[in-house]
Amino acid sequence: MQIIWKLEQGFAQDIMSEIPEPKPPYNTTLSVVKALERKGYVGHETFGKANRYYPLISKEDYSRSLLGRVVSHYFNNSLSSLVSAFTADHPISDQELQELELLVQKAKQNPKS
Question: In 1, 62, 69, 85, which residue has its Cα 20 to 30 A from 8's Cα atom?
């Protein structure tokens, strides 16, 4: 998805050219793109025998969805458990802590149902 977001649209060969060495086989890459298409993340337009692929979901929306699944599946829907697990191995700078405090204050002011 990173490459498709970067390209915004591209043929299989365009996608292959963006993959760093060692490149996977062409068929493997195309299988991954087709799987992303089946999941609704990628669409395509057909030009003769070639397909031009493009993202159907923004990077931001995908990230939110992925993080939601991680919190749900691995942290029992608990954001505090996620933060606790993350901070156990990654120190938080004073600036990051201030940013988190601002986010908490905003969440308190605008609770979602």
Answer: 69
